[in-house]
Amino acid sequence: MTLEIHKDGTTMTALLIEDKYWNGVLDFWLQWRRAIHRDFEVPKTQEIYANNL
Q: What is the pLDDT of residues 31-48, one digit of tens each?
């Protein structure tokens, strides 16, 4: 994982995943995101930040 903090205070993170694992990671993430939408009615287009939970 890479973390970059900009002068304006924004943070950019990236998670590097080998291509052979991508389908499994994407499937898990989509299931999690659908559950958040279903259980907590968070709009599908809203970004989610841990510090706001």
A: 999 999 999 998 988 888
What's the CA gap between 49 and 53, in Å, rounded?
A: 7
Return the structure tokens found at 9: 């205070």
Distances (CA, A) of 5 to 8, 13, 16, 32, 52: 8, 9, 18, 27, 19
Q: Dihedral of CA 19/23/24/25: which sign?
A: positive
Closest Cα to residue 50, out of 13, 1, 24? 13
Q: Which amino acid is residue 22, in one-letter code?
A: W
C-alpha–C-alpha distance, residues 37 and 33, integer Å = 6
